[in-house]
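User: Predict structure, ligand uridine-5'-diphosphate-glucuronic acid.
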Amino acid sequence: MEITIFGSGYVGLVTGACLAEVGNDVLCVDIDQRKIDLLNSGGVPIFEPGLEALIARNREAGRLSFTTDAAAGIAHGLFQFIAVGTPPDEDGSADLSHVLAVADIIGRNLTEYRIVVDKSTVPVGTADQVAARIRERLSARGETIEFDVVSNPEFLKEGAAIEDFMRPDRIIVGTDNPRTGELLRALYAPFNRNRDRLVLMDVRSAELTKYAANAMLATKISFMNELANVAEAVGADIERVRIGIGSDPRIGYQFIYPGCGYGGSCFPKDVRALERTARSKGYQAELLQAVEAVNDRQKDLLFSKIAEYFNGNLDGKTFALWGLAFKPNTDDMREASSRRLMEQLWAAGARVRAFDPVAAEEAKRLYGERTDLELVENRMAAVTGADAVVIVTEWNEFRSPDLTAVKAQLRSPVIFDGRNLFNPSQVNSTGLTYISIGRQP
Ligand code: UGA
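Assistant: Predicted complex:
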């Protein structure tokens, strides 16, 4: 099948490469000439395990190409995916200008029936707005060409995006036209084997499903973070509590890890956007407000613990930061807890020596050449001569450090762990003070 994808960002590239991998002819369109040039010369603008090889293989097979020519894109595919960004507006609601710009271009260039597929995470009602925009542009040309707008939200996790696309646990298709639903079913057939994972529903429910999933996961995390703070206050250990409650299948072990807050391009933005959507309809979503507020507070927690330990005297101290990315296996630092922490440390006059297996370039891009940020090549280089270690991202390579060597290098023998990677007694037995989340020191 012929497929066009607008937006060669994270979602667009993964979707394009995976659809090409199963034999479709995919054309990716982006307005950023530099990005398209990079992709056409074999480069990939983002880090995602396996993506570069997948793109290379499908480019070589002639099934995947990249262009800035939107009209060529509209001529190419029966399916026109919209996978452009929806950054938060100043008030936290989703900014639809990129999505509607694609709708404009489609309306101006449409010559025959097309299925427009919203893949971006967009507020409920966006598909209707996209359809209205296309219709407006068509009528300005005096045309009445048929098209459908489908909601088909993505559920990719950064770091596992290709696996998530190739073996989805569900494929949500929202359409009010049964014939279009069947065409989407055919498109997704290669990813929908063994048992039927495709859930057909109306457009608005599909749009809300995406927000509901992320909001539920974010709620689990904020709930556990709240409980971690309670555990600490009452003299309990949240890690034991976590294991104790996760065994109940109704609760489950996933997404109940307490920590220094959730980040990334999805949870913070989507929880806020859903809350703003509800409010715009006159409903106060109090639970969602609390999920956001608890997460915000949790992002301050490492700094509070550090400031308390050093009696507020951080000026001139150096902190070894292990991890910058918002989670392992990505270089993404959007809304990462590391950023809040570093900014607070800098404001208090401290220096940061950070190691992250892949996010150093991103940190350089975000913070430039600051004299109070040093990016080093490995975890021990961060520790040498530092006052304390702070663990922010749970990269696997941080799980079994030589704690005795760490202690020997530190000026103050203390580890602040925002991800509860170690058993407290094991750390304490090396003579290090261990301050983690929701446990007793
Ligand atoms: C999230 C969802 O998990 C995907 O299903 C969804 O498709 C995606 O958003 C999206 O909307 O595009 P992602 O943002 O890549 O995926 O990352 P997650 O693995 O969900 O982690 C999010 C944050 O929660 C991270 O900062 C992580 O450290 C934190 N987290 C996760 C916890 O603090 N505790 C947990 O138990 C789990």
